[in-house]
Amino acid sequence: MFIDLKGAKKYYGKGESEVRALDGASLELEEGGVYVILGPSGSGKSTLLNMLGGLDKMDDGVLSIDGVTISKMSDKQLVEYRRTDVGFVFQFYNLIPDLTVKENIQVVADITDSPLDIDEVMEAVDIKKYENHFPSELSGGQQQRVSIARALIKNPKILLCDELTGALDTKSARLVLKFVEKVNQKFHTTIIIITHNEAISGMADRVIRIKDGKVSSNVKNEKQEVDAIEL
Amino acid sequence: MTLRKRYIRNIKKNLSFYICTVLLTGFSVMLYLGFDAAAVKLLDDLHVFYSDYHVEDAQFTTLSEISDEDINELEEKYDITIERQTYIDFEEKDYTVRVMKRMDKVNLYKMSAGNDVKADDEIIFNTGLMTENGLSHGDTVRIGENKYTLVGDFERPDYLFPIKEATDTFAIKSEFGIAEVSDETYEKMIDENGITKEYYSIIYHKDNLEEVRKDINEKYSMQSYIRADSNTRITTALTECEQTVNMMNIVVVIFVIFIAVIISVVIGRKIKADRRQIGVLIALGYKKPALSRHYSFYGLLPASLGFIIGFVATKIFGKALISQLFHKIESVPINYSIKPVDIILSIAVPALLYTLAVYLSAAKVMKTDVITMISGRSTGKNGRRHRMKKSHLSVKSKYRLRQILGKPGRSIIVIVGLAFGGMLYSFCVTCVDSMDSYVNNTVDQIGSFEYEYFLKTPEMGESDKGSPILGSTFEVKDRDDMIMLLGIEDSKYINFSDADGNELEYDESHYYITTMASLAFGVGKGDEISFINPITLDEYKVKITDVIENDSQSAIYCSRKNAAELLDMPEDCYNIIMSDEAIDIDEEKLAKTITKQSLADQIDEVKNGMQNIVGILEIFAIAICVIVVYMMVSVLISESESSVSMLKVLGYRNKEINGMVTNVYHFLIPIAIILSILLGVYGTKAVFDANVSMYKTYIETLIYPVSILKIIMLILISYVLSLLLLRGKVGKVNLVESLKDNRE
């Protein structure tokens, strides 16, 4: 199994104020698919994404990706894992405001051993024409596409998308999702999308539901093209 | 108000910023209370001391003695106080001690510690002579052929700058001092050794100075007249205090404004970062002035804590610092204390300034509309940031340059902070280098003579050896300073070249002024200078033909004939002999001897003293540089927290992030270095130029390459040190937490 998560636990606080963000979550996912993780606020979605992306460590449980145990990695090893294997796309883009579009992508290419061609990636998400613009000069949808390009430049094994359309209007959201779909097809990247939006699950190979820190369901989905989804 | 709970939380969150601003404020409070206010207090006390202990208005010598009856008559006639002062010099093994006749009316002494003389075998020394020679009360000292018990130490208002000869430039307290013994012992000393010198000290109680001087000159043939305001034994203490006050006023004001600007910039940026919360509070119904007042406290805190630290430090180190500063003069016999008004000022000024700065910053942020504030969007112009879009520089370099150009306030503070710290050091090393060069070169620049013999009475004709000179001191009109008129036979021992080193032709009918006098009195080539004969009060005016290079003497050179004419003396008389070798002159005839080496030694002594201050200022300079850079880079990291966090998420290692974010200001270091060197050198030049009359010499400003290297090293070390302290800061940025702001 490409992604194998077993009994993941992550608790915050102690005593009465203890919050069980993940409470024995388990998950198995194949390589190259598009997966949508759904769940209400506080269900543990973001915590799960942090674990998968090597941003945080779990209190208990085992996570292995492509046969490598991530959950036992030191901080230094996690940096190397994020550096080579994972791409992130966030709801509010998190671009570096003092760098242009191209530079925001280049800044990742600079630390990658074999980055993809920067122009090819920019063209793939249709932002080549904005390469010398600063983030503040772009619309939300355009910024999110830069964020996708930045994540893709290192040709990651996994692309983790946290509410990637949450801040976008329907038209921009559809466009962004189409690019994600295209990326999956072109680069065969495993894509995990965390969202509130049930409609997005239409584009997924599998839909995973999470509740109270546990995976409540993980079902195969009749995959649709983004154009066919009612957002 | 619940909002007040944010204060403690904010302080905890920005602890390093508050520590830095508190320390900087502490420094400035210490500078103010320890130097500035202390010097003002010292000045006040000096005036009181001079008044209470009846310091003379002038001293003079006469050819005919003024009898006690005549003194009484003069005092009654003109409402003046006159007293005859005599002294005997004793050349002891380690020092020369001048035993002064005890005065009853003028120049009274004040005991600093111990007891006054009562018995015939008791003696008291001025404090400097006693302490510098490691003597204590109860010690036995040999003076001449007799032994005395040192029972106390004292200060006299006319010897606070204890120099042996009135023309000496620097006081070496271990080598010269004054003493008092009982009247009976003094009489016995006169019987055994004779009087070395006598003069009259005078105090005027009415504005009848000219009348009195003319009358005394007519009746008793005045030989010399030195006003108190041109007597460095009296004026040095006052000018040292005045200079310190003037210099510290500038330094302290710059320092406090500089810190206020830093605090305003830093807190202003923190308030800007807080704009989302401010927007929410305004939307909830909070009034803008109330919020501005709330934020003002953030300025009040460093001002109050800084004051406490500065005040305590002054209490502990103040006396030592002020003694170091006034090491040239005797320790004035006053109680060292800080005036309440200065304490109030040192808390009120920073508090008001910082609070106002923060209030204005908060008000500025609140000018933005509430919707923009709540959205957290920046309203700043991005013109500067948008530069270099198509530049081929690396992404890291472009990022750094945009951080510098895009946030000019922050960058200017870094440059000014580093330059300010560096300037303090640069100023000191330039002083030391200039003095060093003076000792090594300038003394030789005067001419080829090695000895100047001053005769007690003028002689006629030619001297057997050396070159005869007719010299006399004049009062420069409308100035407190004196100038020497030197009538020379030829230019044999004088360096007759202009400031550019061009050889000048000596013309017997012309008058030449030295570069030092030219600078002190603002008289140049072709100008006229008026001076007054201090004995006859006759005024003379001469036209200056040229300025000759001589930074050590305040003098006008002319022919011996012209000088004799001005002094109303025979054409071929002389009272000074200048020579390149030692001449055997009868001690009885000799008033004093000046050697070039003694002048060099005196300056060398001051240079060594200055080196101690350099050591102290080095620490100050490093501390300021480190604090400013630490604070600014810390602000930069905190403002770039989301970028730092994102770089971490993207897989950047801490070292790489440090290289990109923390090292932004590398570009500014050369600017700071150049500025600090220029400010230090020009600051030193300004001080030297302004103090020609006080130093009694003009010291040309220069800095050695090795010192430039030291300044560069100091700034680099400070910079690297602050970056090392900040290394952990990037590591502490939580890669998950800082992204939370941007999540649902």
Shape by Cα distribution of chain A: globular
Tally of separate helices of chain B:
22
Please bin the fraction of helical residues of chain A.
25-40%
Global structural class of chain B: alpha+beta
CATH level-4 homologous superfamily of chain A: P-loop containing nucleotide triphosphate hydrolases
CATH architecture of chain A: 3-Layer(aba) Sandwich
- Count the domains of chain A: 1
Strand order of the largest sheet of chain A: 6-7-8-3-9-10
Q: State which percent range the strand residues of chain B make up.
A: 15-25%
Overall morphology of chain B: elongated
Oligomer, anyone? heterodimer
> Termini of chain B, distance in Å?
30 Å
**Topology order of chain A in helix (H) and strand (E) letters:** EEEHEEHEHHHEHEEE
Radius of gyration of chain B: 33 Å
End-to-end Cα distance of chain A? 31 Å
Strand content of chain A: 25-35%
Number of domains of chain B: 4
Put simply, the count of helices of chain A is: 6
Describe the sheet with the most strands of chain B. Answer: 10 strands, mixed
- Mean pLDDT across all amino acids of chain A: 90
Question: Count the strands of chain A?
Answer: 10
Summarize the structure.
With 231 residues, chain A is of the alpha/beta class.
Can you offer a commentary on this structure?
The complex is a heterodimer of chains A (231) and B (744). With 231 residues, chain A is of the alpha/beta class. Chain A has a single domain (3-228), classed as 3-Layer(aba) Sandwich (Rossmann fold), CATH 3.40.50. Chain A contains six helices and ten strands; from the N terminus they run E-E-E-H-E-E-H-E-H-H-H-E-H-E-E-E. A six-stranded mixed β-sheet of chain A has the order 6-7-8-3-9-10, sandwiched between helices. A four-stranded antiparallel β-sheet of chain A has the order 2-1-4-5, covered by helices on one side. In chain A, helix 3 packs parallel to helix 5 and helix 5 runs parallel beside helix 6 (170-187). Chain A is globular and about 50 Å long. The model of chain A has no long low-confidence stretch (mean pLDDT 90). Chain B has 744 residues and is an alpha+beta fold. Chain B has four domains: 1-54 and 238-380, no CATH class; 58-236, no CATH class; 394-445 and 597-744, no CATH class; 451-581, no CATH class. Chain B is 53% helix and 17% strand. In chain B, strands 1, 2, 3, 4, 5, 6, 7, 8, 9 and 10 form a ten-stranded mixed β-sheet that branches. In chain B, strands 12-13-17-14-16-15 form a six-stranded mixed barrel. In chain B, helix 13 runs antiparallel to helix 16 (596-639). Chain B starts with a helix and ends with a helix. The A-B interface holds A 41, 46, 50, 53, 55-56, 79-84, 86, 88, 90-92, 94-100, 103, 106-108, 110-111, 132, 134, 136, 150, 154, 162-163, 166, 196 and B 378, 382, 385-386, 389-390, 394-396, 398-399, 402-403, 406, 642-643, 646-653, 656, 735-736, 739, 742-744.
